[in-house]
Amino acid sequence: MFFNKQKLRKEYDENLVQLIKQTKQELENLQQIEDLVDDFNLDTMVQKKIAESKYFYLFKEARIRRVQIR
């Protein structure tokens, strides 16, 4: 059975772009929550750091794959 590499690559690249956009939105939401909360909340900070790490990892992966993010 033969696979079309270009089709698979395009499909996975599109999935990566969608995941990057979702993670970016999650990070922005957490940043807004952190800005709105007056007291020091460690859980919010931890969630923000995790989302930030995910976003930068995915962005790095996109750069390695040379994916165009529109």
TrEMBL record:
One Pfam family this sequence matches: DUF2508
Protein name per its UniProtKB record: YaaL family protein
